[in-house]
Amino acid sequence: MPVSNQQVVGHGFLGELYGDSYYPDHLLDKGKAILLGLCARIESERPADLDALYVLTAAATEEFNALEEEFVAADSEIETIARDAIGEDFAFVASAYGFADADVEELIAAREW
Questions:
Q1: Residue 57 in domain
Q2: Would 12 be classed as within a structural domain?
């Protein structure tokens, strides 16, 4: 299901990480796909409250946890700069779907990076 939220469609997910050779573009593309997949789930499942949103973001965070292994294999990692960029994009997604009061730490609470 393609994403219809125009804020999301126009957003450059993980934009500040592209162009930095430490972060392989093909892995950033996978991270972007995780975030867009989260958006698609939000649009299809329409979480009614923050608790329902946090269930969806926990699943997306688990996907980033799995992606971390690929970063390590590529002599990279999801470290402070990447963690902040990912967290900011999770916060952007929450806000774009009407959850501006979502706690960023709760959005990515399942992270292992």
A1: yes
A2: no
pLDDT along the chain (113 residues), means of 10: 92 96 98 98 98 98 97 96 97 98 97 94
What pTM was computed for the model?
0.96
Show Cβ contacts of residue 61 under 8 Å, excluding neighbours closer than 6 positions: 90, 107, 108, 109, 110, 111
What is the pLDDT at residue 2? Answer: 85
H helices present in the chain, as ranges: 6-9, 25-45, 50-73, 80-96, 104-107
Q: Please count the CA atoms within 13 angstroms of the CA of 44 that sit on its side-chain side.
A: 10
Residue 6 forms part of a structural domain: no
Give the number of domains in the chain.
1
